[in-house]
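Q: Start with the shorter request: fold the first protein.
A: Done. Sequence, then structure:
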Amino acid sequence: MDKKTGIVGLTGSFREAVADLPEGSRVVFTGSAAVCTPFIELLSYSIRDKGFEMVFIPNAVSSEARKIKKQKNIGMSVVDEAADPKDPDVVVVMGGLAMLARPIYANILIIRAKLVAMRSNVVDPGKANESA
């Protein structure tokens, strides 16, 4: 495995991690509002050509889920349009939320949603990681 660093390493590693997902897959990101949002937009930009439906759940509160869309002359952005986070193909748990599960792990924890049951309005990263 090659060592990758910086933004190119982050986005390239993420792109590789979801490379086997088919077009139309639902990729759901969750993380802290404001702090994680720009990183989520950066990661979503790296997979903008994959034909994925992308959703952001701020602070792991599914009732606040918003779509991530390409905006002309801007790039990928979380938009003020409600999204359905149910039945994701992948859940990406960012930064602080991921560290609740395993403080020493990397800042991005990718969990195959087929192994995760999203049964309430709050996704518990600790329980999700246990089932992965």
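Q: Next, the second protein, separately.
A: Sequence, then structure:
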Amino acid sequence: MDPNPEKEGEVNAIVSGLNVTRFTLRRDRPVIVSRCVNGQFAGGGIVIRTSSRRAIATFAPRGCIGIVVMLVLLAALPLWAAEDPIEILKGFIEAETRNQERASQYTYVEQADFFRFDKNSQPTKDRSETHEIVFLEGEAYKKLVARNEWPLDAKEQALEEKKLRRVAEERLRQRRSGLFYKYVSMGTYKDLLTLFDNRLLGEEEIRGRKAWVIGSTPKEGRAAANVHEKEVLSFAQKLWIDEADHQILRSLYTVVGRHIVFIPGTTITWEFEKIDEGAWLPISGVIDGRLQFARLIKPAVRTEYRNSRFQKFDVQSTITTEPGEAAGPLVPAGGGQSH
């Protein structure tokens, strides 16, 4: 037999001179690199290889029966079983840091459809809002441009422009005073490494792209150190991470705690795509569950988000708030969640 593990073909395994078992050798599968003589291994072993051509382990049991059994068992293992979920998450976090810089160069339009539920628990569209997503001081900002698919009147447009300028000024002051923090109740992706137990659940294909599926649950017995951690640990997370670009294709947050306005069982789902071979951005999302305003008030809610008209700007503009002073960069809105 050719001992080259990169060669594809077939080999016969002879067990104690009685049985003949034929195995198909393919790349990324266990490979016998030796032969049986009178029921014994004549040197070599079984080598497991991954797509990155790293040798994971070598086994050399003495009996050919053991070799055949081990070969069958190992061949049944999926390739993703050898991957480390922590390393996958670290690679994603590094890639996402670079992606945020590219994402801040885009604006896009977000339409949110709000649903109410009748007495038969059937959803009915209640209203919609359309926002332009722009970036102020590096943070996403939603600028309202339409209600129920009708543009705002002149008075409301003026109010929205005034609000945008006020937020820009506030963010600039906060940044200069050192108090500018990005507040996200669902936490940052880095929280996954410290507050959650992470498991690799498998591989799936999302819109033609292969993805690792990572399941993250709050660490058992982990007491929240502050309000932020209480909110973060109220969610279990499931991420579909693109194997080629190490970016999120889909995220699913499920409420498991009672420290937020959503009650357990509520889900928040986002779908992401690569835009024009540039940044990865959210293209759609759904919030589905119940709110809790008081002990007995638990209305069902559903909101559907659709993003479109993505537009990249190569040059940033600014809003001037004082003579000779800029309020920080503002990517122009037109045309055309961060975590």
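Q: Describe the second briefly.
A: The longest helix spans residues 154-177. Helices lie at 64-75, 85-103, 154-177, 191-195, 227-232.
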